[in-house]
Design brief:
By secondary structure, the protein is mostly beta strands. About 5% of the residues lie in helices and about 45% in strands.
């Protein structure tokens, strides 16, 4: 079945699909034209925000958390949130501190405790305090990570964060700090040819 059957969305046929998430029977997807919702029953595709907002909310990744909020990593110095249970709330932005104006968000992750983490290029790993809107940071300077260039994060069964960065893997307890690190040179030994 051709799901891209609406004349207004013909351009989607040539876009690149970046990510998909199922939530409450709908398919949410991010592509090179924006963030969309597809009703699986009717195959109707609708944008989550106007095309003119794509440069602001286009993003590189998104998650839907356990409370029904869709979080967008904007690849800028903020992340954005949309309440899927009540879209009339609009989009809320969470900016990094002023000194981080050149920061770039990359990936988002929700922990088992419901905390939202953001991997960044240059600022390490950030944890959002949803009540205050302020980010706590885990950085190489604080001895919590191997590098401030973090590409992805996952959580172990013990609640430890596994952070993949440009210099290797950092395993940390969010409350106590770095537990272990594996540098790329130890992980992937390089020898001369």
């Amino acid at each position: 079945k051709n799901y891209l059957n609406e004349p207004s969305l013909d351009g989607l046929f040539h876009s690149i699909l970046l990510q998909t998430v199922f939530y409450k029977g709908d398919l949410y997807f991010l592509d090179t034209y924006g963030l969309f919702k597809m009703d699986i029953k009717t195959a109707k595709i609708t944008p989550l925000f106007a095309l003119d907002l794509y440069s602001k909310y286009g993003g590189v990744s998104f998650i839907v958390d356990s409370k029904g909020y869709l979080w967008i990593s904007t690849f800028m110095n903020y992340i954005a949130r949309l309440n899927l249970n009540d879209p009339s709330e609009g989009i809320k932005e969470y900016y990094f501190e002023d000194k981080f104006t050149t920061a770039r968000s990359l990936n988002l992750f929700e922990s088992k405790k419901g905390d939202i983490y953001v991997t960044t290029l240059g600022l390490g790993l950030l944890k959002l305090d949803k009540q205050t809107g302020i980010f706590a940071s885990y950085t190489a300077e604080n001895g919590q990570l191997l590098s401030n260039y973090c590409y992805n994060v996952a959580e172990s069964k013990l609640g430890h964060l596994i952070v993949i960065g440009d210099k290797g893997i950092s395993i940390l307890d969010p409350d106590k700090g770095l537990l272990k690190s594996i540098s790329i040179s130890r992980l992937l030994p390089i020898s001369s040819f």
